[in-house]
Amino acid sequence: MSEPIVRAAAVENIAGRRPPESQPVLRTETGHHNTAHGHDDHGVLHHHFEDMTQQREATVLGMWAFLCTEVMMFGGLFFVYTLYRWAATQRAHDLGMIDPFYVGSQLLNHTLGLVNTFVLLASSFTMAMGVYYAQTRNRKMLMNMLVLTWLFGASFLGIKAIEWTTDWHEGLVPALNWHPEHVLTHGHHAFDVAKVNLNHLQMYFVIYFCMTGLHAIHMIIGLGVVFWFWVLAKRGLFTNGNDQPVELVGMYWHFVDIVWVFLFPLLYLIAGHHI
Amino acid sequence: MAQTAHAGDNVERFGAGHAGREPQDHDQRDDHHHIVTPLTYIKIIVVLMVLLIITVLAANIEMGVLNVPIAIAIATVKAVLIMMYFMHLKYSSKLVWIFAGVAFVFVGIMFALTLSDYFTRDWLFNPGH
Q1: Model-level pTM?
Q2: What is the ipTM of this complex?
């Protein structure tokens, strides 16, 4: 499929006419579904749906059902965070010590965390634009947007890897390499080790690695799917009226972005309660 | 079903099934599909970036117990914007809204019931604490 044809098709479609390459999809002139005749291996309308509206709603509904399970999985971790932050802060307050969750957040690199949040928001924007270009049947721009989304996502993971490596070298990895005393006394922010409950600080980092780790797993899966969709988009599979799969991948990507929108302030931006 | 038009939105209707069809077989090409335009996406991403900067600034102001609620409120606004516009919830049917909301309801139940247990455990053994 050459580039000029695709552009012409997009223009033609906006004008309200069916582009040549979308001929095998949709319905036959008698109103029957074309897939029933077996012509179409990536059919726009699957035979078990009445019409496109029903199909769109059903697939979107299915994606939201999956995202519900995702919300509840991350919700468990957010609950653990809430409970331990409350308990650790209360305990520190009662004993006149420093809030270990505040100490933990101060041991993270706030600049990298902020940059990563910008990067992830940007990736959500390019993903949304990818959906737009799939809907308007612009194959080249859809591919570009998927590439940008992938690059932003990969940059996020790269920056996250730098942060984790630093955490490892600073002895901030619970159980595996847990020696926080040095960074606490010699780090950017010096703390009185006697006034920090190191077990509670370790709990902060257990939660930090579980939450950012589960989020990173979702990012890796997302990168795989975006790459796969770039390959399919290159073949023109999503710019013939079959844009719905791109929207579903976009929903997953935006969900992962939303998780980070909550993780960033909760893990990095804990205000200091100096006692 | 999912095709309620919102006046004032930069949304055009785009029917993949419309092309080249005769007007009479309306039921067979009932595919009113919203396309959110790039301008809307640009507006939303700018608002999201501004909210991110506000989050960072707010966290650097010592406000005691208010810091956490403010941070969560800003994050919630960002999440709602992403769901409404990037995930097209605004243009979806009521059924989709219910599915999108039910997860947060259940997470809310988990938080409310379990935290009410933890928060009140001291009351048994330390009356007046």
Answers
A1: 0.80
A2: 0.81
